[in-house]
Amino acid sequence: MFRSLRFQLPALFLAGILLSGVVTSLVALRLFQDYTRDQSLAELSREAGGLAVLVGSSSPIPVAAADLEQATGDRLFYVEVQPGLEVFPGGFSGLTVLEPRDVPPAVLAEGSDVVTFEFEPPGEQETFIAASRTVQVLGKTFGALVVGQPRAELRDEWLTLFERLALAFLASVGVAGALAWYLSRRITRPVLALARATDEVAAGRYEVAVPEVPGGGEIGELADRFGQMATRLRETEELERNFLVSVSHELRTPLTAIRGHVEALREGLVEDPDLRAASLDVIARESGRLERLVGDILDLAKLNARRFTVHREEVDMQRLIEQAYAGFGEEARRRAIDYHHDVQGGPVIVSDGDRVLQIVSNLLTNAFRWTPDGGRIGVQLVLANGSVEVAVEDSGPGISSQERERIFRPFWSRDGGGTGLGLAIARELAIALGGRIELDTKLGRGSRFALVLPARSGE
């Protein structure tokens, strides 16, 4: 349970709330303490100044100190300069008298203004915060009037604030806990659903429902990526299934032809020399077909495993294009296809000639497969901008935007025929040679595949 994300998220969230709440409360309490003390001292200073002026006036109004203390809520003290000396002819009566040693020296200093301090009156067990001012009568200092307030009263205010902060803190913790629980449920629910979906995918069931995450975010992106992964795995499984079917068909067809002709020759059913030669031609042709199929599969495996070796040699591109072009001349005549080539210059590059020829042949094979009888296929060799471009253009049906990337995947075919390896191998070979294959196509208008290689001199 404690290792569960559903527990750890709320716990971490609440721990952060608790820590920030405690720090905030301590800071607020400290600020409030300073504020209330400053405010109290300011109020005491005003009272001490006003009362001292009133007492030192020429016609003071007699007032009982107890009444004034009750009205203000503060304590009044008087500091005698000379014990036993009558302070003033009138004024406050019943003042608590202090000796000079009971207060700081600054209280009775000549020319002193209002002085704030803390002291403990004789015979009392609590500390006061106080403000004092000297009493002047006819320019003569008779003593000092002290207005004080028990510090415990300030502490009572602090405790009141602390209690309110504690209540607010508990309420905020409750709200934060509910919010953390809600958020953890909101986060962990799709995560757990993704975990269950992962188990389904691991069991080979790719038609799994990916949970929808409201609001998106990182979990939503993870769910989308998971859905894409499941789709790709499903497509891969389908491609593998199609590959097995296609390869089985591609292997079975030549093998059946070879076996039939071999059996006929072995049993002496073919006596005519011309028929024997034709049978041997069929066997040779179908054997070559098998060899090409197996070679394609091996090439793809090597390319995927990054164990493909590129041989560096001088390649005459004009001669190579003419060789590839000539290999499809008979099929073009038989199908009445307008087949032509355009070679602009004869660049020589450093590359693997056999692999370049294989790429161009694969592109031509693809073009002849999709071009209808009586159509048009062109081969063009161009040297421009430091690159050599071999383009194969056809008048086939074109390729939709959804299929532009799929056609380069191994074992995928638009019509389910063939192995789907030609274009996949062509692109991987182009990348291995330091080039690329570009595609320009429109539905109903044909396609143009271009092999682009760096034009490095052979010198």
Descriptive account of the structure:
The protein is α+β, with helices and mostly antiparallel strands. It is rod-shaped, with a radius of gyration of 50 Å. It has helices at 5-55, 65-72, 151-202, 217-266, 273-304, 317-326, 329-334, 353-370, 422-432, and strands spanning 63-64, 75-80, 92-93, 96-98, 115-119, 128-137, 140-150, 313-316, 338-343, 348-351, 376-384, 387-394, 436-442, 446-454. It folds into three domains: 5-155, Beta-Lactamase (2-Layer Sandwich), CATH 3.30.450; 217-304, Orthogonal Bundle (Helix Hairpins), CATH 1.10.287; 313-454, Histidine kinase-like ATPase, C-terminal domain (Heat Shock Protein 90), CATH 3.30.565.10. Mean pLDDT is 79; it is low at 84-90. Strand 13 (436-442) and strand 14 (446-454) form a beta hairpin. Helix 6 (317-326) packs parallel to helix 8. It contains nine helices and 14 strands. The two termini are 71 Å apart.
Q: Any key phrases for this structure?
A:
Beta-Lactamase; 459 residues; 9 helices; five-stranded mixed β-sheet; Helix Hairpins; alpha+beta; rod-shaped; 3 domains; Heat Shock Protein 90
